[in-house]
Amino acid sequence: MDEQQKIEHQIELATRAAALVKDETTVQRFRSFAEELKQKLLRMMRRGKVRARAYELWEQAGRPADRDVEFWVEAEGQIEEERDQRRSSDSEKR
């Protein structure tokens, strides 16, 4: 089981536990824990997208040495821009 699957499993368990518990404070803690795990999962997925994009940019540039940070920053910007465009498009549809 990889890290992503472990986190997804933990989210599922925390969500189930929150549905079964009667104490509202404990329910809130389970829900908060599940939300923290979801955010961690999103960051992991984003990091993977950035890594793949940075690699593509590096290859397109002819695989130059010592420019990894440059490609990483560019990839982050592109991924962020795409996310903003999706959000904007989604909000216009509503």
Q: How would you describe what is shown here?
A:
The protein has 94 residues and is mostly helical. It has helices spanning 3-20, 24-60, 68-93. The chain is elongated.
Number of helices, where a helix is a run of at least 4 consecutive DSSP H or I residues: 3
User: What is the succession of H and E elements?
Assistant: HHH
Would you tell me the structural class of the helices and strands? mainly alpha
* Beta-strand proportion: under 5%
Overall 3D form: elongated
- pLDDT averaged residue by residue: 93
Q: Give the CA-CA distance, first to last residue.
A: 38 Å
Count of distinct strands: 0
CA-based gyration radius: 19 Å
* Oligomeric state of the chains in view: single chain
Give the low-pLDDT segments.
none
Main sheet summary: none
Helix content: over 70%
In short:
The chain is mainly alpha-helical and 94 residues long. The chain is 86% helix and 0% strand. The radius of gyration is 19 Å and the shape is elongated.
Topology:
Layout: H1 3-20, H2 24-60, H3 68-93
